[in-house]
Write a structure and sequence with these properties.
The chain has 237 residues and is of the alpha/beta class. The chain has one domain. The protein is 39% helix and 9% strand. Strand 1 and strand 2 form a beta hairpin. It is globular, with a radius of gyration of 18 Å. The two termini are 34 Å apart. 32% of the residues are buried.
């Protein structure tokens, strides 16, 4: 995630939406006092800074107690206290609810907030290759897709069941939507996106979207499908 005080924007990072590539670009534009969280492995041009500091844990602990807010990643109170002890005020893929709690509601409300989303069927296939990239003998895609935790990011950028960010760009129109977001904060020219953390897909691997897999994707990503109008891509039909 990135918070730019110079340009008054907050980037909420989701999974398998070129988030690290976006961060590499934004890191160089955000300013010296920006909050830029580390990525692993480190990427050239990406400079983490100002992400470690003491923060007030009361807002998120109270919110969790009062509303049992699901967008807090269902993390126990002890996880907040661990972050506090380590001075991990901000970290990679921090949800909007915790960014707002730790940064402060005033900054959250005044800054331009945005993230990116991706077609769920394509996202699941990409997540499969990413999570199994180091396995010498990956499981069959269908078995994996029916058992694995699939990468829904709905709770990362929503509050109370509605998007909490000003703009949700589409991975399918990544370059145009990123430039649109940057124009909104006065950055009319930005560098081209690098390919960061890209995992090459094994062309021999099969990713059949069977009826059972399709049903699970529709169940896990029901909120994204309804809100954004996603449908199964023809290439995966």
């Amino acid at each position: 995630m990135i918070v730019s005080h110079d340009h008054r924007f907050i980037f909420v990072k989701t999974r398998k939406t070129a988030g690290t590539s976006i961060e590499v670009v934004l890191s160089g534009l955000a300013g010296a006092d920006a909050i830029v969280t580390p990525v692993q492995p480190p990427e050239p041009g990406h400079e983490p800074r100002n992400w470690r500091r003491v923060f007030n844990p009361v807002p998120e602990l109270w919110d969790r107690y009062r509303r049992q807010e699901p967008s807090l990643e269902a993390r126990p109170a002890s996880a907040t206290l661990v972050d506090l002890r380590r001075r991990w005020a901000f970290r990679n893929h921090l949800p909007a609810s915790l960014i707002r709690a730790r940064l402060g509601g005033k900054a959250w409300d005044q800054y331009y907030t945005f993230c990116f989303e991706r077609n769920p069927w394509d996202k699941v296939v990409s997540w499969f290759f990413y999570t199994t990239r180091n396995e010498p003998d990956p499981p069959p895609f269908e078995r994996w897709a029916l058992q694995a935790a699939l990468p829904s990011d709905w709770n990362r950028y929503t509050l109370g069941g509605r998007p909490a960010v000003d703009f949700v760009g589409r991975f399918e129109s990544l370059d145009d939507d990123l430039r649109r977001a940057m124009r909104h904060v006065g950055l009319l020219s930005i560098p081209d996106l690098p390919q960061a953390k890209g995992a090459r897909r094994d062309p021999r691997a099969e990713t059949p979207i069977t009826g059972a897999v399709d049903a699970r994707i529709r169940e896990v990503f029901a909120r994204e499908i309804e809100h954004f109008g996603y449908s199964r891509p023809a290439a995966l039909a």
